[in-house]
Amino acid sequence: MNLDDVRAAARVLDGVAHRTPVMTSRTLGDGVFLKCESFQRGGAFKFRGAYNFLSSLDEEERARGVCAISSGNHAQAVALSARELGIRAAILMPEDAPPAKLAAVDGYGAEIETYDRYSMPQVQAGREFAERRQMTFVTAYDDPRIAAGAGTAALELLEDAGELDLLLVPVGGGGLMAGCATVIKALHPGARVIGVEASGVVKRSLEAGERIQIPVPRHIADGQMLTQPGEWTFEVMRELVDDVVLCSDDEILAAMAFLFDRLKLVTEPSGAIATAALLAGHVRPEGARTGVLISGGNVGLERFVGLMG
Amino acid sequence: MNLDDVRAAARVLDGVAHRTPVMTSRTLGDGVFLKCESFQRGGAFKFRGAYNFLSSLDEEERARGVCAISSGNHAQAVALSARELGIRAAILMPEDAPPAKLAAVDGYGAEIETYDRYSMPQVQAGREFAERRQMTFVTAYDDPRIAAGAGTAALELLEDAGELDLLLVPVGGGGLMAGCATVIKALHPGARVIGVEASGVVKRSLEAGERIQIPVPRHIADGQMLTQPGEWTFEVMRELVDDVVLCSDDEILAAMAFLFDRLKLVTEPSGAIATAALLAGHVRPEGARTGVLISGGNVGLERFVGLMG
To answer: Do A100 and B261 touch (CB under 8 A)?
Structure first.
């Protein structure tokens, strides 16, 4: 996957995905630009990749319908993209996924099955689900079409903010990171790309030089529940990611509160984590023109009040 | 005041005020456009009018400094505008104003005095404060420069959304309404303009044909605590406003929850009230291209959690 693939995805998404706003905050610094994918359709960047993936399917694949496994945002993205393209969708979701996310997927007309995410690795559960359903499986991250779609967020950010020296990206499976890193390293080769995560699985994998496996993590960033980085995305990240930093639950909550009060932004925990890295001082831009990906806002009012109360 | 005054204000504000995003929601309807002044500097539309007013002052007026009385958003707007223009500011605020608003005004470097808003009409308290301080008084709404600044929000909305048949505007003192109604009636004379309020003082005044006075209302829309419409704004509203509808606290809270969950927007009660009028069915667009002003987002996390919990 290269910059041309991302540009092709941008053409597929033109007029379908929202061009989300870029916000600034003097408190964060004069050269800090927040790309607000919380305002993306489906409430997160995931729509970009899912729609790009589904658009690439041939007639036979579309006719079989699509299925996916996801803790929430990818589920919504696949359900919404499938509805837009007139494709049948079935989604396997963890039974403890936030109710707001379950309700949204249902609202987009997809069929839902639930499973216990603490009893079976996601990859295995997804594979079994796809075999049983005989539908086209839509990976949440480990595919160049998904990453190219996600990378269009970085393309727009650079168009709106101008040249950047530093880009902070929430990292789970690595689809958003693979797409965004590909874009910025192609356009501004000197820029640093830093991933931000809650569990440390990506950081430790990069340090080890191979994908490590961890137990299902228990932190508040439900968008980053992976036990292992993606296979293909890991190779991209090894090549393009300069560093990965970790944020604690308290740091994430502080960032969500800051974004609510000061920027009037609704974020979910994984959506606020790159901002948390700045606020907590894990990354110090020191004058660098800095892009920050706010990856999603699907926290749900009830959970937000619970987290903040 | 006419469209040219609003266009002149737009030139004054160019590069100083944010051009706030316009959002859409399929749930609200295909032709509904939300102008999100919650993302304006200072967290509300008020910055537009205050900055335009302060920019019009002569050297002597600037040297004396400026003062204002406000429950919050106008206070922040005057404090922020004064800081930008290098003018000294003192603000009289109700002692029960939301803590987030008091803190923000303090943060902008203005001096704060507090008073009991249930013991003295705001107009009287403001007059006494201005006399005592011998500073230039900045009215929150009852001045063409304030209204012309506020009207730039409607100008931008029409540029981004195209022609509108209907415009819903939160109405308190009437500055935002006077500015926005002037713009849309000049550009699209057939469009209907509807005010939305919590207390009914504007509706009853328009029905009576004169400004009535009510006791300080006790509802959650702290941005609409006025006991009487403005003198000048009332004359503008008599001429240009087609109707005024009321929303209850519960309807406002439902709109705040909807905007949080579905549009990822942080709104304060008076900021959500025009959306509440749509959701509660007090206004039925029935296919009309509809603009909705979201006037502000300064609710503060703690108060939001309290209201929603």
So the answer is: yes
Cβ contact A309–B309 (<8 Å): yes
Residue pair A292/A33 in contact (Cβ under 8 Å)? The answer is: yes
The pTM is what? Answer: 0.95
- CB atoms < 10 A from the CB of A140, how many? 26
CA A214 to chain centre: 20
pLDDT at residue B258 greater than cutoff 90: yes
C-alpha–C-alpha distance, residues A140 and A120, integer Å: 17
Q: Nearest residue of A to residue B266 by CA position? A: A264
Q: pLDDT (tens digit, 9 = 90+) per residue, B168-221? A: 999 999 999 999 999 999 999 999 999 999 999 999 999 999 999 999 888 999
Nearest to B184 by CA among B170, B202, B168, B164: B164
Q: What is the distance between the alpha carbons of residues B85 and A19, in angstroms, rounded to a whole number?
A: 33
Bridge partners, residue A136, by sequence: A66
Residue among B264, B300, B309 whose CB faces A305 most closely: B309
Low-confidence ranges of chain A (pLDDT < 50): none
Q: What is the mean pLDDT of residues B233-252?
A: 98
ipTM greater than 0.85, yes or no? yes
Cα–Cα distance, B108 to A128 (Å, whole number) = 58
Q: What is the pLDDT of residue B299?
A: 93
Phi, psi angle pair for A192, to nearest 5° = -95, 140
Separation CA B276–CA A136 (nearest Å) = 42
Q: Which residues of A touch B265 (CB under 8 A)?
A: 264, 266
Would you state the structure tokens that stand for residue B163, as one six-digit string? 């022609």
Rounded to a whole number of angstroms, the distance from the CA of A146 to the nearest CA of chain B is 24
